[in-house]
């Protein structure tokens, strides 16, 4: 006779243990379909955070231009400036707006210019400062307060 006690009776498996070992490969998670899933590409536009130091130095040493905000979409984070001396519209990114107000159509601005890689054919406004708020429009601060001008 052996002095070992009899083995304990088997315990029923807990719910999270029932699937252990049944699948050798990880199960795909069920997700709702998204039109952007798998298609997200980094933006080619250089924001203040992604601009190289040398490009920032070149832009800051350049002349100051004047223009009028043609349009700006806060939710998309970009807009365009119409130069005061004419010429094609200049791209404006949300990260390059200085000051407390979100630009709106008709605001007079000053800015410097920086080329957009990789071909450096197009220009982008940097160090944008609103000099005169468009009269008769509501302006919003970055924190969300609305001010009428």
TrEMBL record:
Q: What is this protein called?
A: Calcium regulated heat stable protein 1
State the residue spans of region: Disordered: 1-49
Keywords per UniProt: Phosphoprotein, RNA-binding
Q: Which domain of life is it from?
A: Eukaryota
- Please name the Gene3D superfamilies in this protein's record: Nucleic acid-binding proteins (2.40.50.140)
Q: Name one GO cellular component term.
A: cytoplasmic exosome (RNase complex)
The GO terms this record gives for MF are:
mRNA 3'-UTR binding
Q: Where is the CSD domain?
A: 64-130
The taxonomy runs: Eukaryota, Metazoa, Chordata, Craniata, Vertebrata
An individual GO BP term? regulation of mRNA stability
